[in-house]
Structure of ABC-type quaternary amine transporter:
Amino acid sequence: MSIEVVNVNKRFGDFVALDNVSVSIPAGRLTALLGPSGGGKSTLLRIIAGLESADSGKVEIEGVDATNLPPQKRNVGFVFQHYAAFKHLSVHRNVAFGLEIRKRPKDEIRERVKELLDLVHLSQFADRLPSQLSGGQRQRMALARALAVQPTVLLLDEPFGALDAKVRKELRDWLRRLHDEVSVTTVFVTHDQEEALEVADEIVVINEGRVEQIGSPDDLYDRPANDFVMRFLGPTTQLGDRLVRPHDLHIHTGAATADDVTGRVTRITRIGFEIRVEVAAADQIVTVTLTRNEFLSLGITTGATVQVRVAPEVHSVVGQPA
């Protein structure tokens, strides 16, 4: 179900958390609120959930004005970074909790919990306590508990932030598959660019309480609205007065042309399948990213003189001429 946030403002004392924010979140999509720490993304999520109230503005969920509705009236599922599990209850009872307080029939609760534990691959752990689960398993339990009451909107506040990199990667793959199965409107907060680019249908970039850009991962990465979005959504380097992606630079050892900048290789670093070449050119250190095969075909070493240019197929970036 769609969410409309219209002209929302929020202050905490002198600190402006949200500055006239308007966002339209499409029904059935997985939307990421992405930005640096303190940028306002969690505040926006909590206002949508009803856990914080806006100083001004409006929130609509399914076309209903939810601005002054309490959280329990919004039919929203919320998952926190640190699980918020009931430590004395089993996994089954944790997932069943929301249904029990709504006094649903016992047979319905049992069937719904079984269905969800199967969905999140925790059926074999139904009788365990949360402390007997791994971090990734506890987060899957928290997602099942949020889904138990069949919310129209699922909100996740940095759900994988407390987990190590390998588990985070596994869980975000799993979240994407889960969302495709249950098809609930999902909004998640993250400061991890790779997570947002990999998982989300749409990304809302928030910085210093303002929306910088809204669009698909491809739109934001390839056509950033400004320097902040470009720098935040991936590696950048400067060539002359142009901000570009390191993998969008072409490097060669032939004669210079009008489009080339001449420089000297100062450092070569291999990171997995990538080779990063740093070139001192025109009082700048320019970073060029190459594949291993591209690097080997060049045959360059530290100290070599090279030519660097922006690849001709690269689009104009943030209003700069192509």
